[in-house]
């Protein structure tokens, strides 16, 4: 970090001279302030870090008996300060690993609770392991193609079974069909296409006709449309 003394008049710089850089602790604080203000990016504070924080927030809210420590905005600032510790220039922190520092907020046992009850991925009865997307204001959700929901009869739940997971149902071509949080409501309803390759039109449990693109499948799929999908 370089330091300079500026002489200004009504916002206009009249002169500048190089001075001794601030002490290391002060430099780190200045860097942290710039990151918090959004003027310096921290590339490794990425989507995976934000997802980890959202997982923790969800579990703190729905499973208070675990007594996990939430991360507040002030705590975020503290963590950024930790990341900047010992740095005297932006290049010292630009590529620093962020997630291990953030995850150190929890003990090993607490991280085990987080992984179990607010997991990155769910294991479905048919063996599929979709990634869970956590939202700041909405419900967590998974996205699966319709044929990947074969044999999935119940809505997945997390957080000790207290939080149902939204299911985004997609066509074989990855286009959205429906979003549901109640796969069981359709009972054992099944959908079949008009040909063995499952191309053509099918109907969901409410009788709505849906066009499905061609894909190969040997057995019918259970439909959670509107309540259950198959």
Could you explain how this protein is built, in words?
It is a single chain. The chain is α+β, with helices and mostly antiparallel strands. The protein has 2 domains: 24-117, no CATH class; 141-222, no CATH class. It has 6 helices and 11 strands. It has helices spanning 24-36, 47-62, 73-84, 90-93, 99-103, 108-117, and strands at 3-9, 12-19, 141-145, 157-158, 163-164, 166-170, 176-180, 190-191, 200-203, 209-212, 221-222. A 3-stranded mixed beta sheet has the order 3-6-7, with no helix packed on it.
- Which regions contain 5 or more consecutive residues with pLDDT less than 50? 186-230
Largest sheet: 3 strands, mixed
Number of helices: 6
Strand content bin: 15-25%
Comma- or semicolon-separated keywords:
elongated; three-stranded mixed sheet; 11 strands; alpha+beta; two-stranded antiparallel sheet; 2 domains; 230 residues; disordered C terminus
Task: Provide a brief overview of the structure.
The chain is α+β, with helices and mostly antiparallel strands. It is 26% helix and 20% strand.
Secondary structure layout:
Elements: E1 3-9, E2 12-19, H1 24-36, H2 47-62, H3 73-84, H4 90-93, H5 99-103, H6 108-117, E3 141-145, E4 157-158, E5 163-164, E6 166-170, E7 176-180, E8 190-191, E9 200-203, E10 209-212, E11 221-222
